[in-house]
């Protein structure tokens, strides 16, 4: 059990411990907040929880300090004569409500867009979804989960016709082979990685396969490390499938009993011989064979997938091929045989379940009129009021509509698109338009908030109550520990206030939103999930309080939750029940209901083949490098919280760029030198870190924006945000922007004053000694209490 | 036998569809899904042009193996026009018009492929049938894409 308390505070002196889970990554680690004199004073892991058994990662140990940052927003702000000035809630909300009404009268709901996050609670997304879809009737709702986890959902919908993670974290305990595809687990879900390290250190360790262009900790522990050319994941996966099929590592009984589409896959894979794939991906053919031998020899195979696939070219097509490996090997729904299409944010799963990403809540299918009618019954509105004439508008399309002037009010909650969306010069130009009314609801005056017409101060984790669900479907309760600062309000209360002021009504003239606090919202959400795959009806705040998290579906039949989905090869893919009929992986065109019924009449899993296509932007003489962006262990998103936790900020204080020694020598760049990275869209200045990254590839962390530069919301004398450089392009099926396939140039600007400000402990580790090692100071000391066969031993040590 | 005539006509129609997709792509450079997918799907038609020219020799037709192309300057002009005007809200109706053109042209191409498939089966020309079986599914996907794009965009463009 890991604990970190503010300096000088003893665990015995803590007033109260309040139950919650991680908000700074997607793993869903359970923890308690220490409350001392009405303030948050530390955290400790919850030993009884199934997810983390008391362990915590660095972002949780230190990130809580951001709650008490002196620059928290404490009062609403409105723009007066071009300046943001403090005001009261009535004034701020009336501005929003007045503008909403004007636009509804002038244009209708198509003028309104809502862009939320992956960090609010289930109750809040469900409320927002009801207001936007059932109340206002707009189709323009999305979450920033579009940037991180949309492809996870899309890949699951393509293969299983429904979202919902087949596997469980416990599969790590049973697997004999674990394949991590574009998933730097050691940095994105460090506690889950510890679980793998436990296995590696114990008897019968599993073999790891790592696909990543960077020298991650995962790569260092892998039996085979494949570092393909960015943008070629589909070719690589097809190469692996080719080998599995050619060597008969397939389960023909499972394929014929539980899947459709195998014949096309077999045909497609034929052309992807290891030699052919080796040319496309620039990896040795023998490595592809060796990886396939290990995967093909597995008795219990676990696969995990993350941003290396999701944010790259052909994201959904590549991720679907990982599902296909399991389907043709019949390795699903048994201990150790799982798929984890990972999430990037703590509550991303809820964004998808509750309608925060534009999908209909409860995994209802917008193309199925009966599902729409059922939702209309739950909400007591006419079915025609719920927009379902087309797919929900994803955020990149919303930005286009804001650009062309047809979305005129955009409400951004809990996210910072002025740093996190691609091609920032364009994004800033859209937000700067006078004709766009921008509402931003956040904790701090982020880059996006600086561009807003109204800024609403929000409460955050530890200051409000709600539930959220991690990638393996574990639901946790997160309780309020302390009051929010000043006049800041819970996001739920803000949305409820908006609905009340708009006087939104159901079809009988009663208030549309029938709940008033987190628990009553949760009860309403439960009803919405009844009989759906993500069934929450067996859960309650009482049941979640004091105990371990519980995996959905949890209902009368499964009162203690469900560890694995799709046991015995039965799926939720019946045309009348499924969430999605699927899309064309190249064009993105949705399948018509009749097409889906013909394709999959017996509710099986769908094997979808895909051909490799070259990326839209390829290297050239002017832009000879491939640029990928990504994350580091110590920061989350645009650093709004992690930069306000001193230990985390010190570990990675400033942007850097990674390149390999060969390229550094060729371009005359040394460790720590200031460089300028350029693409056709902009430039970023960063100190160089020379690592074991794949030759020809540059890596930039995407966390760094401008709020702590003194430069306002944009670059002053040189870009700092990686998204100055990224391309406006997205995966046709998942609509996830492509952050990991752009052509770039680098040049040396000047000599460095020391090593790059990059961690030495992670995938950013330097190739040689740079005279500096990342380590915490005395304030970073954490306590680790180890339980050994029932007894406990205590060991304090630096983390 | 009139198969040569159909191939001649199809060669022309696929070239035309490729041009239509490319022009739409360039005219709507600021609409990124149209921009990127227009180019991707034009490439399918260009590939079909090569395949048709290849097999048309067997039916007495001498057709150009290279798809029609035009000067890069014309393309850049259209892209530049899109960037100048496309951010100010004028070209949205033109987008629907272009998608409609793509859809109807792809429908025509699809009908031609159907005719060829029927004839090829009737006289058991398996080489020709193989070409149809490779190409026609692409045409159907082009149609579905254009139709889906019309569905996705119509509401916003027409009511705002």
Automatic annotation (TrEMBL), chain A:
Residues 15-71 form the 4Fe-4S Mo/W bis-MGD-type domain. Keywords: 4Fe-4S, Iron, Iron-sulfur, Metal-binding, Molybdenum, Nitrate assimilation, Oxidoreductase. It comes from the Bacteria. The keyword Iron-sulfur applies. This is Molybdopterin oxidoreductase. Its cofactor is [4Fe-4S] cluster; Mo-bis(molybdopterin guanine dinucleotide). Residues 788-799 have a biased composition (Gly residues). It comes from Citricoccus zhacaiensis. Gene3D superfamilies: 2.40.40.20, 3.40.50.740, ADC-like domains, Dimethylsulfoxide Reductase, domain 2. CDD domains: MopB_CT_Nitrate-R-NapA-like, MopB_Nitrate-R-NapA-like. Residues 750-799 are annotated as: Disordered. Belongs to the prokaryotic molybdopterin-containing oxidoreductase family. NasA/NapA/NarB subfamily.
UniProtKB/TrEMBL annotation, chain B:
It comes from the Bacteria. This is DUF892 family protein.
